[in-house]
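1st attempt posting a full record on here, be nice pls
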Amino acid sequence: MNHAAAQKQVERARQRLLGDDFAGALRAYEVLTRQFPASAVIWFEYGNAASGLHRAALAAQAWRRAMDLDPSNHELIALIGHQYQGLRQPEAARECFARAAAAGPRAINPRISLAVLLEQAHRVEEARKTVAECLAIAPGDDQARYFSAVLDRRENLVESAEARLRDLIASGPRHPYVRYACRYELAQVLDRTGRFDEAMAALTEAKQIVRGLTDVDALLRGYDEGARRAREFTRALPRDILAQWGAGFPSAGREAAPALAFLGGHPRSGTTLLEQVLDAHPAVAAVDESPAFIQVLEPAFHASRELTPARLNTLRRLYLDALRAEAGPHAEGRLLVDKNPSPTSRMPVWLRVFPELRVVIALRDPRDVVLSCYFQNIALNPVNANFLSLVRVARHYSDLMDIWLAAREWDGFAWCETRYEDLVADTVSEGRRVTEFLGLEWHAAQASFFEKSRGKQFYSPTYQDVTRPVYTRSVARWRHYEAHLAPVWPVLEPYCRRFGYPA
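the predicted structure (as tokens):
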């Protein structure tokens, strides 16, 4: 085969991969690896195709081959690390980033990626050492300077963090992420030190920079259409919908499944805290924001209108296989808790596939929810684009909670609500109530949940907070920002009344 023909074959395989045609891409790369067995890039892309089909062992084998073929290519090795990071395999990702750093003595990116993972695993001293390596290589590096400030704030060295951040902002960082992230981080420091108006000003600057980097309006148009359809569909369902669905999918026709619960609510409503209280129970395996529902169950559910018992059982297997893979072997025989706020808006899908599902919804003062979401610096997608303004956060809150308020009226639905404020005020009492709703007795280890949390990898933005005992400073935090929240009060007031939060 001549070079031009071979290149066309490679490009066709890459187009399939980029188009998420993982099955077609895998077949193409199987041929290409035989034709170009010494190409590390081909083996890397072959692994990506296998990963897209959830064939983890094959992906790992292909990526190992790529690294063995080109052990000095620190950029390729780092890309493999990011693949493992996306698969929620932090140990494998850390190994790749460390290997990439060793292969590139002056490479900054793999060291920063390693430092981020170390900090998320609460290995702060190791993270500082890695950042120090970056600064020794390039003292003015934007990422290293930013992450030094993050580590200072993490260890409550707020004066040092603020000084680093202000110096970084004044220097006009070129790195796009650092340009806005340093302002988000400064807002956290200002909030912690009681300078609330200054915190909001820093957030405003950060969000203006983000809007300049992304077509936010296009993201929001996509979100609005999906939210409208989900809200109208759920509200149109009759109160006896579960009985109607159950008639076509009776318990006798369902494949056996482990005990399963969904922990949802609006983001920043205390779901992570409650998850850790539950996960400390020896009979519970709680999974932090698993992609199993969004990436596996929901797309498969909507791929066909056929919802026969056979297909519903297939959907159950797809989801449970993905959730078990993430929960790990220690979860065998335990109650599985999928903590994941966003799929709260997909309650009909949950209950169509798992009629026996127990649902726990975390509530928190809507004003604190909206404010906390506004403070978050998280990757943009059609949902998170709402967090760029208080008006849009309030709208998102309304969209999601309207769906919940409709769903909780369905007859025969096993659900309970729990308030963040109650969990903070009396963790044992409120934690016991939720634990008993899930069919278990309270366990003494749940009161000291934070001891187990220190050794766990988290994916929620609040991963730092659940490694220490319960604190109350986030209760009624909104009062410091009451003037800023005034424009969205008409939207939030009905939900404050509905959920028992006084004006």
